[in-house]
From TrEMBL:
InterPro entries, alphabetized: CR_Ser/Thr_kinase, GNK2, GNK2_sf, Kinase-like_dom_sf, Prot_kinase_dom, Ser-Thr/Tyr_kinase_cat_dom, Ser/Thr_kinase_AS
Keyword check for Zinc: no
Signal peptide: 1-17
Region (Disordered): 626-649
UniProt keywords, alphabetically: ATP-binding, Glycoprotein, Kinase, Membrane, Nucleotide-binding, Phosphoprotein, Receptor, Repeat, Serine/threonine-protein kinase, Signal, Transferase, Transmembrane, Transmembrane helix
The organism of origin for this protein: Cephalotus follicularis (Albany pitcher plant)
Descriptive protein name: Pkinase domain-containing protein/Stress-antifung domain-containing protein
Transmembrane segments annotated in the record for this chain: 247-272
Principal subcellular localisation of the protein: membrane
């Protein structure tokens, strides 16, 4: 008899420990006010809450003298086991940073609630701004009108009763009325009157869900849900409410009967704990992308925080369009580059996971390798291989000429970069457009092997699409005209940027710097090409120590890549072929687009912009001149050859 009891208990404890932590997202609200410097306080608050929530179902925390002030509250539904409560909290904590840097935010998962704000909101029960109701999309499968009314009535009874029960029983209740299951939970910081007020409001709202299978009322101080599925656990059977005292009783029985049975119970408990730990670890990291943690790409946020000396300014090595880059040293001594992405919108989060999934499988000698990422902390981080030498721009535009690259080195850099881009465009199943090829995104390792960095703007495009219309992001001076003016994005955008880069490497000058009376680099090279004087433009610091034929060939390829007509630009594999073959015929380039100097000179020559009013202004200006100078016969995929008209010289 005790043995079968014990078996039952073990079974129960296992099945309960693997019950559902209900982490599906029911609602999220991000405050409109944005702030700065919130992240350090946010991290501390979330850490403290996770300590408190290991032993309770409810916790609040307020860090005194933090600036800006921040108050946090976490509440698990009372039927969740302590383990599931932790899991649910971990999930909400992983999802809430989507709202950063909002000054306030809250998230309802189906098993818990998490909120932060800049004032003490703990006893708030209703709010005109925050309270919402959501009904499921699918109707209950009922044919007759009578049955529908019957169901409607059951819903009304269920939510009405469960609200009453919750108010009576200290803030939590569940009920079942004719196949309709309902749960109500008030936050523990809300008093009885507040709880009643809150649930009354939710009750009225949720009733309106009518014939829908599910409804959720989510207010400032409570949560109310009904469903035709039984979604909650029975309180009293869970291990942490009455389960533990039950365990004590049975332990005593077991002690009284046979010592070895108790030993096996303890052993089983240890196993259960182990399982719970594993489950917890897997869940908190793998919620968003289980494939990530399986692939071993996950880093702990704390590890990277320490590795970069808490993201100190002295460790900062770069600032890209998508985030700041820090150098870090992992506990095993390995140096890494950590890119810190601060999300403002849902879009950013999606981009981030895209990026990780996208480039973790991509490896090439001319691409900076992605080592992993961290997704469980308040910010998402990417970890790249650390490339010790400087970026290409620091070599070729160095006024002091501390280390001048000779022709052989420059040529190898050009070929390597071309191969890296070629791989991005066609080396894997997915096509990737880098969108921000420029000299500061080409890193050089000790052997001066080029490695393309910053895939932050990379997007994967479907094989069926020839171009994507996207927001303009990239760096002026490198941007292809069709992209700048219309946001039309194809691989040829990278080809154009690469062409500019080639001219820069050969000439040792920035494309975005203008020389009085001679115009942009592109313009100068083009004019000299027409007058057979290209040798003049080659970087003086090479002291004529170069094979002129090869240099001219490379310049010509650069001009081919920067042609105004998208269709005339070669693809990257053609570029690589032309660069590496000895006696190929290089086509004669057409005229590149000459962008108006004054419209395009940025304040600082090599900065990245993502959404910059300057760019949109410039683009708008160009769009105007584009439309006015062009007849309607030109289709968007054919960039007009009459670019002279468009790009007012
Ligand atoms: C919270 O932020 C809002 C909006 O910035 C501000 O008006 C309010 O004074 C702040 N409250 C506290 C307690 O700091
Ligand atoms: C909440 O508490 C504050 C004081 O902490 C009090 O001023 C306020 O009236 C309370 N609100 C409710 C709805 O009880
Ligand atoms: C659900 O029922 C409503 C009427 O009560 C109807 O208007 C709606 O189209 C139904 N939706 C679905 C998905 O069946
Ligand atoms: C609770 O449910 C019973 C039927 O199960 C019903 O008669 C009663 O009116 C309900 N109470 C409320 C407040 O809805
Ligand atoms: C019943 O369904 C109707 C719509 O079909 C809806 O307007 C009403 O609020 C629902 N709830 C109750 C309790 O009658």
């Amino acid at each position: 008899m005790p043995l079968s009891l014990l078996l039952l208990l073990l079974l129960a404890s296992f099945s309960l420990s693997f019950s559902d932590p209900r982490i599906s997202e029911a609602g999220i609200y991000c405050g409109a006010t944005k702030t700065t410097n919130l992240i350090p306080a946010f991290i501390k608050e979330m850490e403290s809450l996770s300590q408190l929530i290991t032993t309770h179902h409810f916790a609040t925390y307020h860090l005194t003298n933090s600036s800006p002030t921040i108050y946090t509250l976490a509440q698990c539904h009372h039927d969740l086991s302590q383990t599931d409560c932790l899991l649910c909290y971990a999930a909400s904590r992983t999802k809430l940073p989507r709202c950063l840097p909002s000054l306030s935010a809250l998230i309802f998962l189906d098993g818990c609630f998490l909120r932060y704000d800049n004032y003490s909101f703990y006893n708030e029960s209703v709010s005109t701004q925050l309270d919402t109701v959501t009904c499921s999309a699918s109707n209950v499968s009922i044919v007759g009108e009578n049955e529908r009314l019957e169901f409607n009535k059951s819903v009304g009874f269920a939510v009405g009763n469960v609200s009453k029960i919750a108010v009576r029983d200290g803030g939590f209740g569940t009920v079942e009325v004719k196949g309709v299951y309902a749960l109500a939970q008030c936050w523990e910081s809300v008093d009885r009157d507040g709880c009643r007020e809150c649930l009354d409001k939710a009750d009225k709202a949720v009733r309106g869900c009518g014939p829908k299978r599910e409804g959720r009322g989510m207010n400032a101080g409570c949560y109310l849900r009904y469903s035709t599925d039984k979604f909650y656990d029975n309180v009293g059977e869970t291990e942490d409410n009455h389960g533990l005292s039950g365990l004590g009783v049975i332990m005593a029985m077991v002690l009284g009967t046979a010592a070895f049975l108790m030993l096996s119970l303890l052993a089983a408990y240890a196993v259960y704990r182990k399982f719970a730990e594993i489950k917890q670890g897997r869940n908190s990291l793998g919620l968003i992308s289980t494939s990530l943690s399986r692939s071993g790409l996950s880093f702990k946020y704390e590890t990277l925080e320490k590795a970069t000396d808490y993201f100190s300014d002295s460790m900062m090595i770069g600032q890209g369009g998508a985030g700041t880059v820090f150098m870090g040293t992992l506990p095993n001594g390995q140096n890494v580059a950590v890119k810190r992405l601060v999300f403002n919108t849902r879009q950013w989060v999606d981009d981030f996971f895209n990026e990780v999934n996208l480039i973790s499988g991509i490896q090439h000698k001319n691409l900076v390798k992605l080592l992993g990422c961290s997704i469980e902390g308040p910010e998402s981080l990417l970890v790249y291989e650390y490339v010790p030498n400087k970026s290409l721009d620091q070599f070729i535009f160095d006024n002091k000429k501390t280390q001048v690259l000779n022709w052989k080195q420059r040529f190898n850099i050009i070929v390597g970069t071309a191969e890296g881009i070629e791989y991005l465009h066609g080396g894997t199943q997915i096509r990737i457009i880098h969108r921000d090829i420029k000299s500061s995104n080409v890193l050089l390792d000790e052997d001066l092997t080029p490695k393309i960095a910053d895939f932050g703007l990379a997007r994967c495009i479907g094989a069926d699409k020839t171009h994507l219309s996207t927001g303009i992001a990239g760096t002026l001076g490198y941007m292809a005209p069709e992209y700048l003016v219309r946001g039309q994005l194809t691989e040829k955008v990278d080809v154009y940027s690469f062409g500019v880069l080639v001219l820069e490497i050969v000439c040792g000058r920035r494309s975005s710097s203008f020389v009085e009376n001679s115009g942009s680099l592109l313009e100068i090279v083009w004019r000299l090409f027409k007058s057979n004087g290209l040798a003049e433009v080659v970087d003086r610091s090479l002291y004529d120590d170069f094979p002129i034929k090869e240099v001219l060939k490379v310049l010509q390829i650069g001009l081919l890549c920067t042609q105004a007509a998208v269709a005339l630009r070669p693809s990257m594999d053609q570029v690589v072929l032309m660069l590496t073959c000895k006696d190929c015929d290089i086509p004669i380039p057409n005229q590149p687009p000459f962008l108006n100097a004054s419209a395009l000179e940025p304040a600082s020559p090599s900065r990245s912009y993502s959404t910059n009013s300057f760019i949109s202004n410039a683009a708008r200006k160009l769009e105007v001149s584009y439309s006015s100078s062009e007849s309607s016969s030109v289709h968007s995929s054919d960039w007009p050859l009459r670019s002279r008209d468009l790009m007012q010289k």
